[in-house]
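Practice problem: predict the structure.
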Amino acid sequence: MRKRLSQSEEEYLEAIYRETRTGKDAKISKLASSLKVKSPSVVQMINRLSRRGLTSKTKEGVRLTKKGEASAAKIVRRHRLAERLLSDILGCDLPSVHEKACELEHVIDDELAEKLEKVLGAPSCPHGAPIPDREGKTPDIGTIPLSEVGEGKKAIIFRIPEDRLAVQRLLSLCILPGAEVEVQRKSPGGSVIIKVGKTNVALSGDLSRNIEVASPAVWRRFRHRWRWGIRKP
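Answer:
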């Protein structure tokens, strides 16, 4: 009988899934930072997941195997459905839903996920990230990180990070899905200065890399299908 994944193992798979969405391998240091643990703990868990056939080590870090990808997509699906439940039904404010969903995702099974999907009827989480379907697939939307937009170019915010502090800051600056921004200046370190309305705002490289933007054409295509949980706390 196959042993069920522990809550800790699920958290690691979810973190690797998020870090490898751009096609790059997940770095040990980045995983340690996002999971708030020490690097040796990450290495120990990666070894455990590798023995279960869920991850494979690379020169650059770690990636999910096909089996690991399928498992991680299910976890992410449950997490984003939980965020949707918290936002749409329970009325939780946007900065708080990610942390609460981290607890809920571990008690939602596949059957309950199916029922939540039918009731909620949303293809995206409140932050704008697509919810994987029952097969673990997500649509290719065509967004890019804000950090990759050239100087003088405009784009529309499509997806924002889930971290509470990041969400609170973006809410206070009115940098929300649907907002048009113009990149004024970029630095080699990745930080950017953008114009939102009539205000110039400086964003760190880490934050700009985790904000996804879309062209007006992509925004028009998805704006009536996607649902964002934009409620000020």
